[in-house]
Amino acid sequence: MARLLDETSHWDAWTRRTQVLAAVAAGTDVVQAWRAEQPDSLPATVMHTRVAVERAVRAHRAGHPRTRELWQEAWAACRDAAEHAPDDPVPWVCLLALAALDERQRMEEHRHRPPAPMLPPGPWGLLAEAEKRDPYNREAHHRMLQFFSTRRSGASPGPLSEAVNYAQWAAGSAPTGSALHALPLYVRVERYRRERGHERALDLHWVAEDALREAQRALDTWFLFCATDEASLLDLNHLAHALFGALRFADAARVFEALGPYYTVLPWAYRTGRPDDRALAEDVFLRARSRCLDH
Fold this sequence. Notes:
By secondary structure, the chain is mainly alpha-helical. It has 14 helices and two strands; from the N terminus they run H-H-H-H-H-H-H-H-E-E-H-H-H-H-H-H.
């Protein structure tokens, strides 16, 4: 871990690698051991923050009784890392990840005024800090989207209109080649999931005019300009999924070719009646890929 992070020079790769490493390390004491051996190591401090946040998020998802305690520990770790690594966007990205736990926006830092009309109050100050260090940071914007998608209205998450507006705003302000152009695809998948679209015999969700427009924009302004070998597998899968659903098989084939032998369970799992069944998701992916590559 230390060697890999020492070789990482760009913020986008740094953000991605620390996130993936934390998902693996959260169930171990390896980062604790690393900090004990090298207490002055900034990468170890950042990884400690990543692991603390990952554990808090997992506890929240599972309804664990220690959620609040882990949340407070993670928040303190984020602030400490931000102080010791002032140029690093990851501590601010981590604070955005924790913001999703504050579903009713009780904390003041999660109720800042938005930068544009039609956007809701939220953790805009945290996003600004991440953006200051790494403009158009992919994970920072996905964390914001997650915040608006899970924000509670009464006893359950509210409508997706806020998430739709946010995704369109972020994609609309992103430069050519930015992965943020894929953000609207995630909102469309979430809407499909909530509406249990897989249960409809005739589903027009993916061939609607706005769905076609979102898929086309992600293709034209992101995929055709990005280094696909460094792109997020989730983003590539969401684009392949959107183009396949829009019956744009030739364009989808280009994305499937870029994916090579790799796939992600989501969003394909939502096309099945049992999203937790990885085998069903894989089967949907393979059939979609075969259909497009044979086109």
